[in-house]
Each structure stands twice: as C-alpha cells, then as structure tokens.
Write a structure and sequence with these properties.
Layout: H1 6-14, E1 19-22, H2 29-44, E2 49-52, E3 82-88, E4 106-113, E5 124-127, H3 134-145, H4 151-164, H5 175-183, H6 189-197, H7 203-212, E6 216-218, H8 221-224, E7 227-232, H9 242-252, E8 260-266, E9 273-279, H10 292-298, E10 302-303, E11 307-313, H11 316-327
Parallel strand pairs: 1-2, 1-3, 3-4, 4-5, 7-8
Antiparallel strand pairs: 6-7, 8-9, 9-11, 10-11
Helix pairs in contact: 1-3, 2-3, 2-4, 3-4, 4-5, 4-6, 7-9
This protein binds manganese (II) ion (MN).
Manganese (II) ion binds at residues 30, 89, 114, 133-134, 164.
C-alpha cells in the first residue's frame, strides 16, 4: 500500500456538518458502493448526507439492491451549497459531469480515489493509485477514523472490491484480506457478485453476436503489442442496459494475440459520439505492459495503467486511425 494521508480524510469527515457524496458519470459499483458506504457511516453519525451522480438519470439496475440506496437523490436535487463535498472514484472534475459546479459551493472538497491519472481537483486529495478499488481505500479511511464496518457497509464495500478486481482476478496484497473481513460480517458475496457481474438479459447474447462480428485484430499496433477492437453501435444497445454494454470489453480483452483491447461505444443519443474502453495487461514475463492511462490521457480521458477510457467523436475509421496514431 502506498503512503497515503488517511488522517487528512478523517479530519475532514469527522467535523463535517453536512455532506454531498458525488459519484462519477456512468457510475460503476466501485463509485456507487464507496459512495453509499460512506454516506451510511455519515448518516449513522447524524450528519445530513446525500449521494448523487450527474448521468444517466437512473441508477444502473444491478446496483439498486445495494444498502443505503435511499440516500441517492436526482442530480437536480443536489444542494448548491454544502459543508463538505466528497468525490469518490473520480479521476478528474470532469467525471462529475454537470455536478462539477457543486465543487464551488462546498467549504471543503475531499477527493477519495485510486486513479493513476487523478488531477487532485479537491481542496483535500486522498489518492492511492496502488489501491485496487476506491472501496478498499475507503475501508482504510474508516479504520483510521474508528468507524466500524457493519454488514450494510460491508455489502457496499464488497460491491466495489469485487467489481474493480474483476471478481478477484486483479488483486493487490490486502485485497483478499479485505474480502475476508467483509464476508465475515455475514454478507452473501456470491449473491452480490452474481447480481452485479454475472446476470444479463437474453438480449445480451444477441447484442454480443452483432458486436463481436465487428471485432478486428491488428497484431502490429503499439510496436507489436497488438490491438483488438470492436464497435457497439447505437442500434446494438436497444433493449440492453449499460451493464451489458460495459461487459463487452471483458470478452474482447481475452484475445491472446493482442495486449491492448478496445471497445468503441456509441452514444445512445448522438450518432458518431463515442465512449471508449481501453484495456491492457502485463507481459507474460511480468514486465509492465502498455500504459493505457497515458494513451487515454493523450486522447482526453484517463484511468489506470491497465484500464482506462476516453470520449471522442468521429466515424469508426477515424476513431481507429486516431487510436493507432497514439499507440505508435
Ligand atoms: Mn474504481
């Protein structure tokens, strides 16, 4: 674990008079799980607190059974002014979407995050890029604060831990220790995982068949590391949830011949506007693989060394050309 000033986070949280917890746009279970875990601790302490995210308007279906979900308010109901604003799992202010203006109305803004590309946009920034999840970082903050992790809070932290580790495929020293501790509170880890990661409507299969038909392999990209990519067009997403769209990369990135995987996901609202998921991995000999956070940053996004993303516009050919140019 990196040297992280947990006490700085505790100092802000223990004196907070009111708190807004903000999750990133297109929220995943790490940002929502961390947000709800923290909000439940604050509620237990009698601090007025709400949780929100800018878009989409509704919380993803798979996360609706998380404890504390009643603390989520629509973006337009987030107060303009608050004592403390906490951004969880957000690498930059842009990840707050339309709610980034709430930073200006907060006496203190605390950024809790594990993204390597974090821009330190808060007044207090507690960032651990060695943490596997923001949930894992938050667990250490709660320990430093002396706030117990009870069963509902453990459920939310487990949600973030299991998703950001890909069901414990990408772990760090301490990841399993935390999982064991959370499970010991009595939560049903298998059920939480199945709900979040392993349940799709039938439409996922037909969507996948169309999307995987677009997959292409470029073995010479990135000086021979290789790139595999696929496109999720607007029409492919009709009748499936964001969870299904976000799952495509996990199939594409299993390609042996490419160290870098990419899925271009077209906006549901706008033709030729795309969010892009990038993945890479360490070389088989254990040396570091391509840093896709740097690639994503060059294209206006950010993320982790092996998982990053960006937003862009253009035709499919233009997207591939721009990405290949960055990969070299
Ligand atoms: Mn995360």
């Amino acid at each position: 674990m990196g040297e992280v000033d947990l006490a700085a986070a505790v100092k802000v949280l223990e004196t907070a008079q009111s708190v807004t917890v903000l999750c990133h746009v297109q929220p995943d279970a790490d940002t929502i799980g961390s947000g709800l875990a923290l909000a439940q601790v604050l509620r237990r302490r009698g601090v007025p607190v709400c949780v929100s995210f800018a878009e989409p308007a509704e919380i993803p279906v798979s996360m609706r059974s998380l404890p504390g979900i009643e603390l989520v308010v629509p973006a337009d109901r987030v107060p303009a002014e608050v004592d403390v604003l906490v951004a969880v799992d957000c690498g930059s202010a842009g990840r707050l979407g339309s709610l980034r203006d709430r930073l200006d109305g907060a006496r203190v803004s605390l950024v809790l995050d594990h993204h390597r590309s974090n821009t330190r946009f808060g007044t207090v920034n507690v960032i651990d890029e060695s943490a596997e999840s923001t949930a894992g970082l938050l667990a250490r903050v709660l320990d430093a604060w002396g706030e117990p992790i009870d069963r509902p809070i453990a459920h939310c932290l487990f949600a973030g831990l299991v998703t950001d580790t890909g069901s414990f495929k990408w772990t760090r020293p301490g990841s399993h220790t935390l999982a064991e501790r959370l499970l010991a509170t009595g939560i049903d880890g298998a059920a939480i995982t199945r709900t979040l990661m392993d349940t799709h409507p039938f439409g996922f299969l037909t969507m996948l068949s169309r999307v995987l038909a677009t997959a292409r392999l470029n073995p010479t990209a990135a000086a021979g590391a290789g790139l595999v990519y696929a496109f999720v067009r607007r029409d492919d997403t009709i009748g499936v949830r964001s969870e299904e769209v976000e799952s495509v990369i996990d199939v594409v990135r299993t390609t042996a011949e490419a160290e870098i995987a990419c899925v271009f996901k077209e906006s549901r609202a706008t033709t030729n506007l795309w969010t892009v998921s990038l993945r890479s991995r360490a070389h088989p000999d254990g040396t570091p693989g391509v840093d896709v956070a740097a690639i994503a940053a060059a294209l206006g996004g950010g993320g982790h060394r092996y998982a990053a993303g960006y937003t862009t516009a253009g035709t499919p050919d233009e997207l591939v050309t721009a990405l290949l140019a960055e990969l070299g």
